[in-house]
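Quick note —
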Amino acid sequence: MSKPILPYKRIIIGYFGWWSIWIVAQFILLTQNGFDWSHALIDAIVTQLVFALAGYTINTSMHSYQPSGRNSIYVLGWSLALTALCIFFQRWILFEIIGEDEKYNHLLDNTLIIRGAFGWLTIILIAILTWFWVYVSERKENEKRKDDATHLAREAELSNLRQQLQPHFLFNSLNSISALAGSRPEEARKMIQQLSDFLRGTIKKDDSTLLTLEEELSHLQLYLDIEKVRFGHRLNTVIQKSEETLNLKLPSLLLQPIVENAIKFGLYDTIGEITISISTRKENNFLWLEVKNPFDPATSVPKRGTGFGLSSVQRRLYLLYFRNDLLVTLQEENIFTTTIKIPQTV
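Predicted structure written out below.
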């Protein structure tokens, strides 16, 4: 449930304070007109206490009604009925307590209309304020529910994006392990352990977790170790990390699909050895990540934004930061570059 506009304790204190002020004002008015202070105090307390109870009654009933023309008529009729009941009970109680004072009885009968008008205006004011309170509170509650639903949908999409990235990598790794099991069992066992460590780290991190770059690079190294077992000497990686960037934050498991995309374009369509370079820098309160891989223009055409890996990363960045300009790809001769910038909170 959403937080109330004002704490209920403060509202109750304010309500009692409001009626206390009117008790004091009515007491002063009566004593200045020559009435005994005890009669003036009783009159003020009884009058304002009855109106306070009526105000509480209409406040309670108003929580069940939404502002509308039909309900406005109901509130108007209910306020007039409450006012009439207030005047009746005030007159009856005051006559019972101060019935022997003819001067006071005359004042009481002559001021019933004024008391009624004051009471009705006060009850209407309380009704309007309550209506406004209920309207604003329900609007805030609806906005909170909408935000919660949007957040859940965003988290579900983020989770779905990450889950789609894992299967083909897992299948490729298992196929490689199967191929190594017969000829190179030691490397197969090593790869199984590396795959286990990688997947364990993946499961522990949710989609909205922010890690330091140092933690992300450590997890990325597990992935690279697995890929190096698969591709052997053909895959080389160079990581140039600036010391000032190691403690900067980025979403967990962001680099792996980008590097996987680089390996795909760099190795699948070329022959011989390739080097994938990863560099980091800090600039204008952004963490900049740059991944470069060679490709053969004759056999590979890496178009801007091509590949599920890059499109999923771009979508994830949008869901997390609500920006579409955080991932940029560039093709220059036989080098394909993917650049990402991650905003850093101040």
